[in-house]
Specification:
Layout (H helix, E strand, L loop, with lengths): L1 H25 L1 H28 L13
Length: 68
């Protein structure tokens, strides 16, 4: 998984986790909410992209939805 992200993707993931960690130092409830928002955004984007790829016949490329 990390091989597909590349260097910028890994740095972005680390910055995201560090940011949520800094928020958690101040308020754990807000950090949990922020983490859920980020997770929801990622799942929504994944669903949209996999649906788009499936419409082009490449749905199996993102690990789901495709007919093999």
């Amino acid at each position: 998984m990390f091989g597909k992200l590349g260097a910028k993707g890994i740095v972005g993931l680390l910055v995201l986790v560090a940011g949520i960690g800094v928020i958690a130092l101040q308020n754990l409830i807000i950090a949990a909410g922020m983490a859920l928002v980020v997770l929801g955004f990622i799942l929504t984007a994944w669903g949209l992209i996999s649906g788009l790829l499936e419409s082009f016949g490449m749905g199996a490329m993102m690990g789901g939805g495709g007919y093999e």
